[in-house]
Every structure is written in C-alpha cells, then in structure tokens.
Amino acid sequence: MMATPNVIDFQDLPAYLRKPAEVAESGDFLTLEGMTHQYVSQVLRQVGGNKARAAEILGISRGTIYEMLARMKLREDGPSPLAKVASP
Predict the structure, then answer these.
(1) What local confidence, expressed as pLDDT, does residue 17 receive?
(2) Buried b / exposed e across 42-73, counting CB within 10 Å, b at 16+?
C-alpha cells in the first residue's frame, strides 16, 4: 500500500524502525525509575551536561530535571535505581 499525502504507513518506515524492540534475553527488565535514570543520563551526556538543553529535549522544566538529578544522587547511597526486576 502506498502512502497517501500526509500519511505514513508502516511499510514506509525504514527497516530499522519496523523491527520490534529487543528485550533482554535473560528476561530481566529495568524498573521504570532505572530506565528514566538511564535516559536522563544519556541525554545529559549528549548535550555536554547542559541541564537547560536536556530539560528542553526531555520536555520537562529545568526545576524538574534538577529534582530528578537530586533524587538520583540520593539513590547512589541506597539501592541502585538501575536495579533489575525479574520478569513475572
């Protein structure tokens, strides 16, 4: 099926976007908090630590990113937010 103007069909997408997301082979999953921590850290690395730019990319306020970073820092003393949870 060909795409009509202003409509993108599944087949119009590049192959790398059409394949399903990969799940860890072991069946373990990150917690939502762990995934958030990982993604925020990745965005911050990509923008050279610019918190205002990272917040803009993430669609959150600068205050929110500072709060998230403070929570992540506090968690470094306790259980890791990247702790994996076994699949059900």
Answers:
(1) 73
(2) ebbeeeeeebeebbeebeeeeeebeebbeebe
Could you tell me the CA-to-CA distances from 22 to 16, 51, 70, 71, 81 in Å, in that order? 12, 29, 30, 28, 21
Task: Quote the pLDDT of residue 43.
Answer: 93
E strands, 1-88, are 28-30, 84-86
43 in a structural domain? yes
**Residue 4 in domain:** no
* pLDDT over threshold 90, residue 88: no
Asked, for residue 39, whether it belongs to a domain, the answer is yes
CATH number at residue 59: 1.10.10.60
- In tens, the pLDDT along 11-54 reads 887 877 777 766 556 567 788 888 898 899 999 999 999 999 99
